[in-house]
Write a structure and sequence with these properties.
Elements: H1 5-21, H2 36-47, H3 67-73, H4 85-93, H5 101-112, E1 121-125, H6 132-141, E2 145-149, H7 156-161, E3 165-168, E4 186-189, E5 193-194, E6 200-201, H8 206-212, E7 215-216, H9 223-244
Parallel strand pairs: 1-2, 1-3, 3-4, 4-7
Antiparallel strand pairs: 5-6
The structure holds NADP nicotinamide-adenine-dinucleotide phosphate.
Length: 246
């Protein structure tokens, strides 16, 4: 929707990933002036299109449109972003079809690195519906002891210093410094922040944090590609479910 340059990059990367996986993708680049009715009509059409297993509306959308209504309109079994309240509720009870792509990608990175979350002090910085909250829930399901920090947290540095596993999803460039990281901690940086000089940096100051961490993800090239990989996984899963039900 509209002409957000970051959204354009994300959509192009997702299209490329689909091509790589052999998933057919249909792009609907809608102008910023699109009305609520037009957008709803498109979602309805895709909901009823048997060729379509997954639907994704790249956020953010223009201010005059209702993001919540858009998320609610996507059929839950085609909701490959896992933003629909029905899918969010399923994640809460640990009985889910789809996981939201970014937190799922973080869990996959942790698992593939042979890191066991059970009993670990996990600190998630950020409480958005898209990243922070589901991230905390997945770490809890993996038996971590989870703390969620946000903009009102009294002593962020002291809380992060307790963590065996730190997940930063804040959107503030290099907020988390090396002196806030416990020796040997695992540090996952979800942040993607574009500086004035166009450089892309995370929410963690990589140089100083890497000196303390036992494992750390870079930005770019860490969580970002995992997010897209999980989107592909959700889409394949949706296609399998739909083909079983045909
Ligand atoms: P968001 O909706 O803006 O949420 C940011 C969260 O950080 C909020 O909960 C906010 O607290 C908290 N926060 C802000 N300033 C803080 C501070 N100084 N100290 C502690 N907490 C603070 O952002 P989001 O959508 O979750 O995204 C977070 C970052 O991840 C962004 O950089 C985004 O670009 C990136 N991201 C990356 C991927 C990927 O694929 N790698 C995917 C999604 C997002 P309040 O709730 O109190 O306001």
């Amino acid at each position: 929707m509209g002409d957000d340059p970051a959204s354009r990059i994300y959509v192009n990367n997702k299209k490329k990933a689909c091509e790589y996986c052999g998933i057919e993708s249909f792009e609907y680049a809608m102008p910023a002036e699109t009305t609520h009715e037009e957008l709803m009509a498109l979602i309805e059409k895709l909901n009823n299109d048997d060729r379509v297993d997954g639907i994704l509306c790249q956020l953010p959308i223009p201010k005059h449109l209702d993001e919540k209504a858009v998320i609610n309109a996507i059929r839950p079994d085609k909701d490959v972003d896992a933003f629909h309240p029905a899918n969010v509720g399923k994640i809460m009870i640990g009985d889910y079809d789809f996981l939201p792509c970014t937190p799922a990608g973080v869990m996959e990175l942790i698992k593939e690195s042979g890191i066991d979350i059970s009993g670990k002090e996990c600190v998630v910085i950020g409480r958005s519906n898209i990243v922070g909250k589901p991230m905390a829930m997945l770490l809890l399901h993996a038996h971590g002891t989870v703390t969620i920090c946000h903009s009102r947290t009294k002593d962020l540095a002291e809380t992060v210093r307790r963590a065996d596993v730190v997940v930063a999803a804040v959107g503030v460039p290099e907020l988390i410094k090396g002196d806030m990281i416990k020796e040997g901690a695992v540090v996952i940086d979800v942040g993607m922040n574009r500086l004035a000089d166009k450089k892309l940096v995370g929410d963690v100051e990589f140089e100083s944090a890497a000196k303390k961490a036992s494992a750390i993800t870079p930005v770019p090239g860490g969580v970002g590609p995992m997010t897209i990989a999980m989107l592909m996984k959700n889409t394949v899963k949706a296609a399998l479910v739909h083909s079983e039900n045909k």
